[in-house]
Amino acid sequence: MNVFEIDIQNDTEIIVDAALLRGAAVAALTHQQIAPPGTMVIVLTDDAAVQTLNLTYRGEDKPTDVLSFADGDAPFPGAAPHLGDLIIALPYATRQAERLGNALSAELQLLTVHGTLHLLGHDHGNAAEKATMWQAQAEILDALGCHVTLSHA
Fold first, then answer.
1. CA-to-CA distance for 39 and 29, rounded, in angstroms?
2. From 73's CA, which of 7, 48, 82, 117 has a CA 20 to 30 Å away?
3. Hey, is 86 helix, strand or coil?
């Protein structure tokens, strides 16, 4: 196996182009020079599920757009490393896209790229980290032809 396997799980009734999300994740991995093989999961779910995870793992009792859970270990000997899981609150993302004037597809590409960069160790806790992450994010989105207004700018 010399590819990235990206599993998309949609727990909502909103129809999403899974190939678009896979493409955004692969673009981020490629930009960051991560060589296959590797696996990751992208879960599209509701605000309540994300709020529960956000409280449990970050101590924040509110929904958010995307959560990243990095892994990096192979699930069993000889298996490809599991890079981690992205959890996207689809209703939250939909409202955010509408508020910012973004197409939902573009917003989901942004959240996938942003979350994938977090899986790879990027953060935006200080100005230097944010500048590095935002530059990588902008380069990846530009390569995808994805133009969005950022909510975290």
1. 11
2. 48
3. strand
